[in-house]
Amino acid sequence: MAEFYWLLVASAFVFMMQAGFLCLESGRIRSKNSINVAAKNISDFIISTTLFWFFGFGIMFGDSIAGVFGTSEFLFDGQHTPWEISFFLFQMMFCGTAATLTSGAVAERMTFIGYLAITVVLSALIYPIVGHWVWSSVYSSERPQGWLEALGFVDFAGSTVVHSVGGWVALAAIIIIGPRLGRFEQGIRLPPGNNLPLSALGVLLIWFGWFGFNGGSTLALTDAVPLIILNTFISAAWGGLVAAAINYFRDGYVEVGFVLNGTIAGLVGITASCHVVSSGASIIIGGVSGVVVYYGSLLMERWRLDDALDVVPAHLFAGIWGTLSVALFGQTDKINNGLSFFGQLWVQALGVAVIGLYCFFVAYACMWLLNHFMPLRASKEQEEQGLNVAEHRATTELFDLLTSMQYQQNNADFSTPVPEEPFTEVGQIARKYNQVIDRVSSEIAQRDDALTRFQESEMRKSAILNSSMDCIVTINRFGSVMEFNPAAERTFGCLKKQVEGKSFIGLFILEDDRQKIFESLNSGFSSSSGLILNRRNPFRLQRGQNHHFPAEIAITKANSESSIESEYTLHIRDMTRHVKLQERLKFLAYSDPLTSLYNRTYLMDALVSSLLFATKQKTAVGLLFLDLDNFKIINDTLGHKAGDELLCEVARRLIAVSDQHDVIARWGGDEFVFMMTEEVTESRLSQRAQDILSAMRLPVKLNEQYLTIPTSIGISFSDQLGIDADKLIQQADIAMYWAKEKGRDNAQFFTAEMVNVITKKFGFEKEINEALSLGHFHLVFQPKVFMEKGNILGLEALIRWNHPIKGLIPPSEFIPIAEESSLIIKIDEWVINQALKQQKSWRDQGLTIVSIAVNLSGRHLVSDSLVPYISQKLEYYGIEGCWLEIEITEGVLLKDIQRCIDVMAELKALDIKISVDDFGTGYSSLSYLKRLPLDILKIDQSFVEECDSHVEDTKICETIIHLAQSLELAIVAEGVETAPQAEMLKSLGCEIFQGYYYHKPMKSNEIAKLLIKDYVVA
């Protein structure tokens, strides 16, 4: 039963090769012939299988006449056993494979009917006879062997019987019908195909089907099948690899056709011996097959034999090599026919020669006769038109496009665009062609118009003169005005009739310049002083008493050198707007457009010059680097317009405290630099800084609100010889950040220690990164309780850093540093991952889990990675979103409120709770609460700390609690450390508490003791 099943499966595999050959050949030829090739592929399979059923199987496997051909088993029917029927189907697929090979070799030039006639010859007169010589006894061991089989000839799955036979017929057809048009003409290279990906798919289908081709030739699912398939796969891979490698090293690139043909050649080469060789020998056979197909294709080209798909090298040449490989690499014990190495080699060579002579001469003779009665070669017109249309009337978008283009060429009619088939490559070409034709028509029309305009140019000279935007004035050799166009009338404010005949120099040249211009005129404007001929001369003219303007004058001689009276044309352009534009550009280049202070570019130039001067004079230059504290918050809350007004007010106050020698520049954003160059001492710099701080502390009214402008100032001065501008700026910048660290709204002088601290800070960032990877962080958990200590309602995850050298480092030291870089996102993700991992661990222990709150940075909240990361981790640990709570500080909400709302909505979609931590300490958050999808408000510890002793804190807590209740939000009091605090908060309506009074932060094993049923609030 296994034999019966295996033959059917193998038949299906081999049938798959037909689809592979169809895809391979359809993709490797030009699109105008693809339908014809596909039709030939399916038609030859239909004819070959029909003839094989009629009498081919009987000739191949029937009762033998002297080992030459069979005489029984015709019209194969259902009277046979299931195994015999399966064997028939398997052999029918082989016949179809042999018949289809010729199609690729003669593609694009052989008629459809002629090709079918060749298929009949191969299927009826060639393939069954050769098959009987080699495989006669395969059907039944009781029947006599074919004459080659009796000599010991081995061709396991048909390197010769199938592939060389098809290759010999293809070679004869190539010789009979000749090459394609232009194939061997110099300078013409036919395209490699229309769809190489389809061809690659075809090779993969063939490769897949070949497993049945070789594996099925055992006729039973035996232990030898796996090795046969392995050898087949190895040989194919090495065939493609070697062919591609030779192509690359010889030609400098890899042509896809050699990869495809090398793979097929490797399959063909191993087919005869795959059952008797080792895997190592398969590599050699496949590799040599790659060499054979590469150089075989070159040989065919040298012989000027046009094989469109290299069928002869891939199937005939590789088939011959594969057949000889049986003797060269076959293991004698597996061949087991009693022949020696040389005896086997002689028999294999004899079989190759005899089969080749028979196949070639029978095929050549039959095709020669057929060609006399029905031409096998398509006509030149049919070949140029494409066999899709010529033989099947199957038009394509490309054919329609070419037909339309030919019509336009023949009739010189470009008024109608060619058809554009949408959503296709041909349609894109047609659209681009139509665009080109439109552009050509437009260009022709423009040229015609230009010619017309040239012919009418004399008539329009006066109009051009009158419409010129520049003043055009013609004077004679005495300087009298001869022509005065309308632009000159507008510029000088007088009519032509008022100035005609009068002296241009006396009317429009400034009195101080008149003598010089008279001298220029007398010299024909060729002297080195005054105005010069054929140049752009910058000059100043007047258009009335005491009203002069900048101008540019170009002078040309208006008549020929032979004229007695010289005339000169003055092209005058009013440069007033141009000069103003230059001044404006200069202002923009060196000034800040908002505040009108100097900009960074000017400051750096001035600083470099001042430092050079100070070095020579042994003086100093001082810098005050200013940064407005909390400017971003003001800008975000009150709007950018208010922010701009604030910056302008800062500029005015800085100017008010400066003197004439100071340089004030806006460095960028809310940063300003104040440079002092006169009498620079530490005391004067300190006094100037205090003056600035005092000026900035005065209230400023913005949007009906009075605000102060606290400012951090960093001070540096050139007390070191040779210090450059960049270094001095850097020192002042570092000092400014030091002032921010010292509480803002103060000034700090730069010291060397500051550099060390900054360096240490960057080193701290590196240590944080390393601690994340080395596992130096751990979590502790602080419970949140409902009314009483024993009612655990939730947990807050708190990160701790146990440094191997420095010991325990509190979060207050490393979190602010991390928040200034992307490290805070890594820390947040680590905390989320560890919290969910701990949840899963407690759940796996059978404990009752509660929600865990994790603190989230503002940078992470608005990042694109937050929601995907949390979603992935919830799914990974199998934790529902309701067991996770995200805590954010209300200050985060001021950065990008809309982005915060969008991210919170995505978190709520995961059923995650969101709480606002440290509520009441930020700016204007109350206006956002109704827009935010919040669940919990946490009262900041600063209000809880004295809520039982200070009325103000009590009122604040009460207000926050009532606000949360009105918004239907849960309220949590954090930092509860005493019983009076707890009682006061309870009296105000708070029910959820967190703090040392109830529980301190604990490790996970301690929390596990609390997560029992009696301690957890449901």
From TrEMBL:
Residue ranges of domain EAL in the record: 761-1015
SUPFAM superfamilies assigned to the protein according to its UniProt record, in alphabetical order: Ammonium transporter (SSF111352), EAL domain-like (SSF141868), Nucleotide cyclase (SSF55073), PYP-like sensor domain (PAS domain) (SSF55785)
One term of GO molecular function: cyclic-guanylate-specific phosphodiesterase activity
Entry keywords, A to Z: Ammonia transport, c-di-GMP, Membrane, Transmembrane, Transmembrane helix, Transport
Listed GO biological process terms: regulation of DNA-templated transcription
Keyword presence, Ubl conjugation: no
Matches recorded under PANTHER family: BIOFILM ARCHITECTURE MAINTENANCE PROTEIN MBAA, DIGUANYLATE CYCLASE DGCP
Protein name: cyclic-guanylate-specific phosphodiesterase
Taxonomic lineage from the root: Bacteria, Pseudomonadati, Pseudomonadota, Gammaproteobacteria, Oceanospirillales
